[in-house]
Amino acid sequence: MSLLRLLLFFFFFLAAGGGGNGGIGKCEAYGLTKEGTAITFDRRSLMVDGRRDLFFSGSIHYPRSPPHMWPDLIARAKEGGLNVIESYVFWNGHEPEMGVYNFEGRYDMIKFFKLVQEHEMFAMVRIGPFVQAEWNHGGLPYWLREVPDIIFRTNNEPFKKHMQKFVTMIVNKLKDAKLFASQGGPIILAQIENEYQHLEAAFKENGTTYIHWAAKMASDLNIGVPWIMCKQTKAPGEVIPTCNGRHCGDTWPGPTDKNKPLLWTENWTAQYRVFGDPPSQRSAEDIAFAVARFYSVGGTMVNYYMYHGGTNFGRTGASFVMPRYYDEAPLDEFGLYKEPKWGHLRDLHHALRLCKKAILWGNPSNQPLGKLYEARLFEIPEQKICVAFLSNHNTKEDGTVTFRGQQYFVPRRSVSILADCKTVVFSTQHVNSQHNQRTFHFSDQTVQGNVWEMYTESDKVPTYKFTNIRTQKPLEAYNLTKDKTDYVWYTTSFKLEAEDLPFRKDIWPVLEVSSHGHAMVAFVNGKYVGAGHGTKINKAFTMEKPIEVRTGINHVSILSTTLGMQDSGVYLEHRQAGIDGVTIQGLNTGTLDLTSNGWGHLVGLEGERRNAHTEKGGDGVQWVPAVFDRPLTWYRRRFDIPTGDDPVVIDMSPMGKGVLYVNGEGLGRYWSSYKHALGRPSQYLYHVPRCFLKPTGNVMTIFEEEGGGQPDGIMILTVKRDNICSFISEKNPAHVKSWERKDSHLKSVADADLKPQAVLSCPEKKLIQQVVFASYGNPLGICGNYTVGNCHAPKAKEIVEKACVGKKSCVLQVSHEVYGADLNCPGSTGTLAVQAKCSKRQKAADQ
Ligand SMILES: *[C@@H]1O[C@H](CO)[C@@H](O)[C@H](O)[C@H]1NC(C)=O
Ligand SMILES: *[C@@H]1O[C@H](CO)[C@@H](O)[C@H](O)[C@H]1NC(C)=O
Ligand SMILES: *[C@@H]1O[C@H](CO)[C@@H](O)[C@H](O)[C@H]1NC(C)=O
Ligand SMILES: CC(=O)N[C@H]1CO[C@H](CO)[C@@H](O)[C@@H]1O
User: Fold this and answer.
1) N or C: which end of the chain has fewer CB within 10 A?
2) For ligand 4, is residue 250 a contact (CB within 6 Å)?
3) Superkingdom, according to UniProt (predicted)?
């Protein structure tokens, strides 16, 4: 069957409603207008009212972006070819105190799933209620630790009681809002527990008893859609086990129970990052390879973790996890399209949908094509339907294979999708979608009114007599803070005689403090002596600092800080933080061990008790003109909202360590003084969602722990992805989406002549203003920095300008005939590289 006929067939198939194009746009298929939809499954796939479908899901966690951003994020996910949105449910956000609930603002779970429904998409709700998710305490509320005799996530009655109560409450809330597919809502899958298998082994028979209990407890809630468990090879009963990982198509054989489908719940689009981590990347090509591979071995649902990561606002990140979350996802932290990741995956989804009939109903088979080469086929011979996935598993070598009498070039580590077992409609290694470059722009608000006030705590460092909790030895920190603050003071006092002091003036005694984690700043006799910290891997650490002591009474005051609670592993309820040993070394009389010296504790900061970061509390605090370079100091300034509607960012690189607020909203912890191996802070740019801002008089408040920072160097920036690029070789296969771009799908297939096309498209409300670079030949470089190679057709720029300037988007042929072959380079690969600039300033032109 020719490709044209194949497409015709699909059109007919769609029109007839026999399977549907994922049903997007057709409410009936989702049961949105009906009483309910049955979600069933077998080995092959999930079924919606008995109809098989392919599912492309993306994780967007509602508390990680403000509700104002949700509609755009969901719409962009749908535009990227997704038909499912996944979110965890965040217990500690919803029940911060036992029996006190919060479903407002960023925690308005119902509103989130209703928006998914309004966008005519499916939803997956991963209740957990342990979720890990690099989220504080894995989502478990602090108060759960204080339940007598509790052991988390095992066959422990107190834990099971509270877990059941919460899960039931969430399920009832979702049912009341009619959000399950069985009620006509969008939710087609629900998850209980989360990556439990390794804990099950640790808890032995109690683990097994617990996971069976959890499966039964969930099933008994009668939600009318299947429950899943991820990374749980032997999920009990009807619960479907799913895979989490980077390469589930090659590392996971699927559920042992042969009537359950292959679903992939977490396919990392990058790697989450903690303070101290260098930047991480996962290329569009690598993700596409893993996903194409998964569908080629019979997978029918993948979930991108994350599709949009967002921000761990305030204190919501797990220990050491930085506020910016999965910025490398297809939609970046600000919700902007990260290209080519977003577009390449969209093209993949379109290609797989084109092959849906074969994937869902065809006979699967595989055919080795040599060492590390393979064809995976799905065929319906009587209907002449055939789809093939040609894979090359060599990591270093491109190759050519012969399949059904025809030769195919298969790049290293790639899958090529042959929609009719003949025509390549997608290759994971050939990116046809546009690229873009993210740029940050200085805004006038940085310098206007760059006047700082301060309110310092360093001149009132508490000593023992100002503390209210006293014990012989220092206490565990979480037990004191109850996760309401990162900060707790540890103080003690001791007396020295003249003969204790070193005789030589140039020899200083040393204060040695050991801590379970995570960081601290120390003072002796009110004077700052230094800071220390652990790492994500080694949370416990020891700090040693030279100190000045005096004859008579000396005071040690240590501010211990945590960076969230741990989110994984067994016995989470026993994890500790804070000071556990203090000595003074180098005295004439030897080492003075202060560990059992009698300790006073004070929870939180003075500024926190007075809400210095809020409008109201801030007004009740004595602010004075700022003096920089001071530890334990609150700083604040006012600023107006930057003009335009590009996202707003605060550059915290001049500061040390602390927390950042705007208008009372916590934007997260900053730690610019902690540099990763490449000498940069892991995060220094902080997203301020525009909905947190008012036109004038916004208040930025910082609490700086270590000092050394220069707040007047903090910049207010805006972020754009207005530099759009294309880099496509004439030899790339034509990806299916580029054909669909034109009005007439079928006509354009013929027009395109199966040559790839470059599609350049500006972000909303912007037009292509300028073609910065265009070359046809063998150009080099990356988006933002292309250079011409030794082959270059001079006409290229003019042709591209004519096609693109003044337009929202344009389509360019990638063919030497259009640009004129370069006679200097016969036989060289023709590559088109274009960089264009989008801008709002241009007045409206034709689309
Ligand atoms: C299982 O739980 C029981 C009761 O809580 C406890 O006594 C036993 O030690 C546990 N077994 C394991 C292997 O942890
Ligand atoms: C925390 O406090 C509880 C009592 O509230 C106590 O049982 C537990 O041992 C304490 N944990 C640590 C590590 O001190
Ligand atoms: C641009 O690319 C050239 C080589 O293609 C490289 O030498 C140069 O450093 C790059 N410039 C920037 C700003 O990345
Ligand atoms: C939770 C989990 O399985 N994480 C894995 C994700 O993939 C990376 C790299 O393949 C592993 O190192 C992680 O353990």
Assistant:
1) C
2) no
3) Eukaryota
